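ok, trying the design again with the full structure, not the truncated one.
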């Protein structure tokens, strides 16, 4: 990626989707290194991170990461998950953040030249198109190296640039044995819903 020195950029990170992509490639993300890298790609205006949180749990595995991000340069956007029982009696948890991400991106569009969207969700194709109509370049970061690919084909086609997450891995990987206080490990939700349906946490088309 060739940096545009004066380009105003922002990161929009679909937390559950990026987690699933990194897990599919077999690595954990160091969010400190990720922020440092993209700070060299232009004038970083904002780095948004979107995730749903379970409110009634005594301890949530995602909480250390969320707290760290909040104090280290990221803008956290969260909402409580919703729990319901489907027609077959199975417990499901809903925590989709697509609307929040789309609204923020459109509100920020007039102040940006380039958006980096960390998601493979095909639902974002229309958002990418709308941003482009406002004159904003959009790069989608996900992976086609998993089986099945984590990025929807229509999203890849719409983006100005597709960045393969595996190519970023050497730059943003969390090294084992690294100081945990510096960048918490990403072993968090939706793992704590293991064994139960997770459709809305990592909905990839």
């Amino acid at each position: 990626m060739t940096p545009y020195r004066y380009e105003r950029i922002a990161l929009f990170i679909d937390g559950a989707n990026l987690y699933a992509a990194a897990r599919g490639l077999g690595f954990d993300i160091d969010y400190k290194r990720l922020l440092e890298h993209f700070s060299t790609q232009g004038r970083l205006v904002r780095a948004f991170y979107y995730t749903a949180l379970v409110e009634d749990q005594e301890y949530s595995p995602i909480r250390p990461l969320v707290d760290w991000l909040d104090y280290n340069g990221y803008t956290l956007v969260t909402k409580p998950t919703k729990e319901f029982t489907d027609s077959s009696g199975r417990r499901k948890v809903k925590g989709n953040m697509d609307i929040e991400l789309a609204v923020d991106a459109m509100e920020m569009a007039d102040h940006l030249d380039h958006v980096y969207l960390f998601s493979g969700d095909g639902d974002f194709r229309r958002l990418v198109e709308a941003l482009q109509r406002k004159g904003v370049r959009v790069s989608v970061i996900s992976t086609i190296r998993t089986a099945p690919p984590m990025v929807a084909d229509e999203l890849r086609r719409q983006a100005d640039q597709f960045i393969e997450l595996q190519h970023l891995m050497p730059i943003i990987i969390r090294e084992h044995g690294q100081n945990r206080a510096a960048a918490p490990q990403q072993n968090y939700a939706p793992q704590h819903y293991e064994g139960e349906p997770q459709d809305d946490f990592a909905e990839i088309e």
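Keeping the full-length input from now on. The helical segments are 15-25, 31-39, 63-71, 98-108, 125-133, 153-158, 165-172.
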